[in-house]
Design a protein that fits this description.
Order of helices and strands: EEEEHHEEEEEHEEEEEEEEEE
Number of helices: 3
Radius of gyration: 38 Å
Largest sheet: 6 strands, antiparallel
Number of strands: 19
Structural class: alpha+beta
Shape: elongated
């Protein structure tokens, strides 16, 4: 949440109750607007209400007298109706006065500007003694919620089904936020929502994750890299993606044998992440796979490991 704190009334700022950059809580006093004019209006409205109540009391007494005199024909029915209308009119006036008093009391409350949310308040946009108005666009300061904080990131549209299945099964998917270089993990959170449409230009869909951010490592508008854990594959065989080759009929890899010759071995690939690919079948742990110079290889070619003196036809 991000809120620009603005005044709801016009007046001079008499007090600034916050320090720039401090953490504030909902309901904390941030600024005080000069309230003297509203207190004067409140006194006037209360005095007017007292006068109308006195008028109503007299009108009710006259109505009771007129009602008792009607049976003796000392007054007409029209006079009684007129007095009843006066009573109703005075009661309506009292309701208007009470509404005016409530409105002035509300303006008095608005003279105390309080924090609407918990968060960190930014730099002050006004100073003590400034005149502020209810329609000012800049506001007094901006409060940004830091805990919890949301991160929005995208995934390819081809991955939506896998994520959606986990969400529909009410599974909590873990999201990790890393710095720009993807070296430092800043925070760990949970996936909260998936957007309702795919961006046709990029072929991606936006996801939102929520982080508790107790250490304050995530900052509003900060760029981070997110990693979403959809499922775990225990004991998976993983190779560098560069070692997986695309053939006319299937995928394969060049596996180095004990005699340093290569053989072409078909493989079935699984999910990929970064530079690594899961091999569902075709390779075993410990197999040596060629990842460089594969365009020069064929079945039976000899290879040497990187760093040796021999001139290789391929590198593993």
């Amino acid at each position: 949440k991000t809120v620009t704190v603005r005044s709801r009334v016009d007046g001079e700022i008499m007090k600034i109750a916050f320090t720039e950059g401090q953490m504030v809580h909902e309901g904390d006093l941030l600024a005080q607007i000069d309230s003297r004019q509203y207190r004067v209006q409140l006194s006037e409205a209360q005095a007017q209400l007292a006068r109308e109540k006195a008028t109503l009391k007299l009108a009710l007494l006259d109505y009771d007298r007129y009602e008792s005199l009607l049976s003796t024909r000392a007054i007409t029915k029209q006079q009684l109706d007129a007095q009843e209308a006066l009573v109703n009119q005075t009661q309506a006036t009292i309701q208007v006065d009470e509404g005016l008093i409530n409105n002035v009391k509300l303006q008095l409350q608005y003279c105390e500007i309080k924090a609407p949310i918990d968060g960190r308040i930014g730099l002050r946009m006004v100073d003590l003694g400034n005149i502020v108005h209810a329609n000012d666009a800049t506001g007094i300061a901006v409060i940004t919620q830091l805990n919890p904080i949301a991160v929005v990131f995208t995934i390819p549209q081809d991955s939506i089904a896998r994520v959606q299945q986990k969400m529909q099964a009410d599974e909590q998917l873990v999201v990790e936020a890393y710095d720009r270089e993807q070296k430092i993990k800043l925070a760990t959170g949970k996936l909260a929502a998936i957007d309702n449409q795919v961006d046709a230009l990029t072929g991606t869909v936006r996801l939102k994750a929520v982080f508790e951010n107790e250490k304050g490592m995530l900052f509003p508008n900060q760029f981070v890299n997110c990693r979403l854990l959809v499922e775990k594959l225990p004991q998976a065989v993983v190779v560098l993606t560069a070692g997986v080759q695309h053939g006319p009929d299937s995928m394969f890899a060049y596996v180095v044998g004990p005699d340093s010759t290569v053989e072409l071995r078909p493989v079935v690939v699984g999910p990929s992440e970064g530079d690594h690919t899961v091999i569902e079948s075709g390779l075993s742990p410990g197999d040596v796979v060629v990842i460089e110079g594969v365009d020069k290889l064929q079945k039976g070619s000899k290879v040497v490991e990187r760093g040796t003196d021999a001139g290789p036809s391929g590198r593993s």
